[in-house]
């Protein structure tokens, strides 16, 4: 019985499950164990500690992998929403998408001069699954009498492509006298748009809107003029006209 109690007494100082290390010899001897039994238990404790360290390392590795897998980039959750009614605001947009998943952010784009909606928006969902569900349920559906477009933003551009688009954006001459041009063919460029509208007035600037961070056309653009009369003339001449095989829509921006 004396031998058994001596062998069990180290448990008062060491719990292998907690990996707290090997008990010091002084504590072992105070508990009444012999030096021989301490040496035997030391070899047992070393193997227990080693296996516990392995368990710790394994647990950490699994956690690291899990956090990598669950991280979803914003670009894969961010949706472009086009051809929306001018009356649709951020709150209504959020409610519409919240029916199909959890919404992180919803933002309607407004013209900085007129304060009117530019007829498109961006919605960021909380997960890729929610984003895909929103696309499936809302793309090509009618909202306020307009068939909206919902799709995920494209992969990021290369640095070279992005700098070209930034240069194109910086050369656009904005003006309070501006026309919105919708339903543009994907082949329409800024130069094509500018030349087309130059027939009916002095074009100060023209640009085809792109899905942010990509070279993909959003299907609409803007043309700025020097007066409201020129804007009205462009609307009268080009609304429902054909450009690159598609009937375009032209109205005041």
Automatic annotation (TrEMBL):
Q: Specify the taxonomic lineage.
A: Eukaryota, Viridiplantae, Streptophyta, Embryophyta, Tracheophyta
Q: The organism sits in which domain of life?
A: Eukaryota
Q: Which GO terms describe its biological process?
A: chloroplast rRNA processing
Cellular location of this protein?
Plastid, Chloroplast
UniProt cross-references to InterPro entries, sorted A to Z: Euk_RNA-bind_prot (IPR050502), Nucleotide-bd_a/b_plait_sf (IPR012677), RBD_domain_sf (IPR035979), RRM_dom (IPR000504)
Quote the subunit structure annotation.
Component of the chloroplast small ribosomal subunit (SSU). Mature 70S chloroplast ribosomes of higher plants consist of a small (30S) and a large (50S) subunit. The 30S small subunit contains 1 molecule of ribosomal RNA (16S rRNA) and 24 different proteins. The 50S large subunit contains 3 rRNA molecules (23S, 5S and 4.5S rRNA) and 33 different proteins.
Q: Which segments constitute the RRM domain?
A: 77-155, 177-253
Query: Where is it mostly found?
Result: plastid
Any one cellular component term from GO for this entry? Answer: ribosome
Gene Ontology MF terms in the entry? mRNA binding; rRNA binding
User: What's in the keyword line of the UniProt record?
Assistant: Chloroplast, Plastid, Repeat, Ribonucleoprotein, Ribosomal protein, RNA-binding, rRNA-binding, Transit peptide
Q: What is this protein called?
A: Small ribosomal subunit protein cS22
The organism named in the record is Musa troglodytarum
Family named by the database record: Belongs to the chloroplast-specific ribosomal protein cS22 family.
The keyword Transmembrane helix belongs to this UniProt entry's keyword annotation: no
Question: What Gene3D superfamilies is this protein classified in?
Answer: 3.30.70.330
Pfam entry (one): RRM_1
């Amino acid at each position: 019985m004396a031998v058994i109690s001596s062998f069990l007494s180290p448990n008062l100082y060491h719990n292998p499950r907690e990996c707290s290390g090997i008990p010091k010899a002084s504590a072992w001897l105070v508990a009444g164990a012999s030096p021989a039994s301490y040496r035997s238990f030391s070899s047992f404790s070393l193997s227990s500690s080693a296996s516990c360290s392995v368990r710790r390392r394994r647990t950490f590795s699994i956690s690291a992998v899990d956090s990598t897998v669950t991280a979803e980039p914003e670009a894969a959750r961010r949706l472009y929403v086009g051809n929306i009614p001018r009356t649709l605001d951020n709150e209504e947009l959020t409610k519409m998408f919240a029916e199909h998943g959890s919404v992180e952010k919803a933002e309607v784009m407004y013209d900085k001069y007129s304060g009117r909606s530019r007829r498109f928006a961006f919605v960021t969902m909380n997960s890729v699954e929610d984003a895909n569900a929103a696309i499936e349920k809302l793309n090509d559906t009618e909202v306020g009498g307009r068939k909206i477009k919902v799709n995920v933003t494209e992969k990021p551009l290369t640095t070279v492509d992005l700098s070209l688009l930034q240069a194109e954006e910086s050369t656009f001459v904005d003006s309070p006298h501006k026309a919105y041009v919708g339903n543009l063919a994907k082949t329409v460029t800024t130069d094509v748009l500018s030349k087309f509208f130059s027939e009916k007035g002095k074009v100060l600037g023209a640009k085809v809107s792109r899905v942010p961070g990509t070279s993909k056309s959003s299907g609409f653009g803007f043309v700025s003029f020097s007066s409201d009369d020129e804007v009205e003339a462009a609307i009268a001449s080009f609304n429902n006209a054909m450009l690159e095989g598609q009937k375009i829509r032209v109205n005041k921006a």
